[in-house]
């Protein structure tokens, strides 16, 4: 009985060793199985096997194998033999197309080969796969260019609309209306609206035509500065970006000339330079400063506001004081 028990124990030991060996063999084969992840590339199929090519196959060989299989399983050409053949052929065709899309691109093929060689890094494989699939297919440079063009178009249309509204307002301002009327009389534009005979018009038509003449003169022949300036294509974002090197070079040349003339050579400021310094002290844009009355600018010059010591907070009230 004791001998029998010893033999049983020995048999149990061999059984444990056998089971351990089976587990080790299974573990050694596990990476090859996990290399093929469901939902990635060709799923549990090897893309090379789907196309019937080796891993060393060239792009030409891959393309040739794809064309042959595509002609065979394409839904427009495939003739099913049984009731379920059509659906299986469609699935096969999609798998063939997926395999070709995976292997025809060098970067995608490199990621796929890395997944086959390093099956344990499945998190990285998921990340690389979905990062490439979700990445934008359009060139980012084209997207940026289209965006800039769209912004520029909106800018120009918006400025034109604001400009037309400003002209409609200036037509009602006595100062500009009187100037436009004088110019129209000097050029004989208003007399044309009162022609007699067959071309005689009603008072309403004459008034509308006179308003149009005055509007056209204010728009094209009177120097309007400040926020009422006519929109220019060079002011939109696209042109500003294209012309940026030119503007930068001009600014650098102007700055070097300024330093040389007024810092090194100690030249006296001219009227243009004085007005520039006054505008800089007031922290106003060029358009805002140009919109001020000329007598206001003369007052600034008389008070020598280009000198920083003379510029005080009370001088800001001059901007709001009508002249």
UniProtKB/TrEMBL annotation:
- Topological relation to the membrane, as annotated: Multi-pass membrane protein
Question: Which keywords fit this entry according to its UniProt record?
Answer: Chaperone, Membrane, Signal, Transmembrane, Transmembrane helix
Question: Quick check: keyword Glycosyltransferase in the entry?
Answer: no
Q: Which residues cross the membrane?
A: 140-159
> What SUPFAM superfamilies does the entry give?
Chaperone J-domain
- Principal localization reads membrane
Q: Which residues form the J domain?
A: 46-116
Give its localization: Membrane
Q: Does the keyword Repeat apply?
A: no
Q: What residue range is the signal peptide?
A: 1-35
Q: Look up the domain of life of the source.
A: Eukaryota
Q: Which GO terms describe its cellular component?
A: endoplasmic reticulum membrane
Q: Its Gene Ontology biological processes?
A: protein folding
The similarity annotation says: Belongs to the DNAJC25 family.
Q: What is this protein called?
A: DnaJ homolog subfamily C member 25
Q: Which organism is it from?
A: Cyprinodon variegatus
């Amino acid at each position: 009985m004791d001998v029998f028990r010893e033999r049983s124990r020995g048999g149990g030991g061999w059984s444990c060793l056998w089971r351990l060996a089976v587990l080790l063999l299974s573990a050694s084969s596990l990476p090859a199985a996990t290399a093929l992840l469901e939902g990635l590339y060709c799923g549990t199929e090897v893309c090379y096997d789907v196309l019937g090519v080796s891993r060393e196959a060239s792009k030409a060989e891959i393309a040739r194998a794809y064309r042959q299989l595509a002609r065979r399983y394409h839904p427009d050409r495939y003739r099913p033999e049984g009731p379920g053949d059509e659906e299986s052929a469609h699935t096969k065709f999609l798998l063939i197309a997926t395999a070709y899309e995976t292997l025809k691109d060098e970067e995608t093929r490199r990621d796929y080969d890395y997944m086959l060689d390093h099956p344990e890094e499945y998190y990285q494989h998921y990340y690389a796969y979905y990062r490439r699939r979700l990445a934008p297919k359009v060139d980012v440079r084209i997207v940026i260019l289209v965006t800039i063009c769209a912004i520029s178009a909106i800018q120009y249309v918006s400025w034109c609309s604001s400009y037309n509204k400003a002209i409609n307002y200036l037509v009602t301002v006595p100062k500009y209306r009187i100037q436009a009327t004088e110019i129209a009389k000097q050029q004989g534009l208003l007399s044309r609206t009162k022609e007699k005979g067959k071309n005689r018009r009603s008072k309403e038509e004459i008034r509308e035509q006179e308003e149009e003449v005055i509007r056209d003169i204010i728009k094209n022949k009177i120097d309007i500065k400040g926020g009422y300036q006519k929109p220019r294509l060079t002011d939109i974002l696209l042109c500003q970006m294209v012309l940026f090197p030119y503007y930068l070079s001009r600014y650098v040349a102007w700055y070097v000339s300024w330093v040389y003339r007024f810092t090194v050579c100690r030249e006296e400021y001219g009227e243009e330079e004085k007005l520039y310094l006054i505008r800089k002290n007031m922290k106003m844009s060029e358009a805002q400063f140009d919109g001020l009355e000329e007598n206001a600018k003369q007052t600034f010059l008389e008070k020598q506001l280009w000198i920083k010591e003379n510029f005080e907070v009370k001088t800001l009230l001059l901007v709001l004081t009508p002249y």
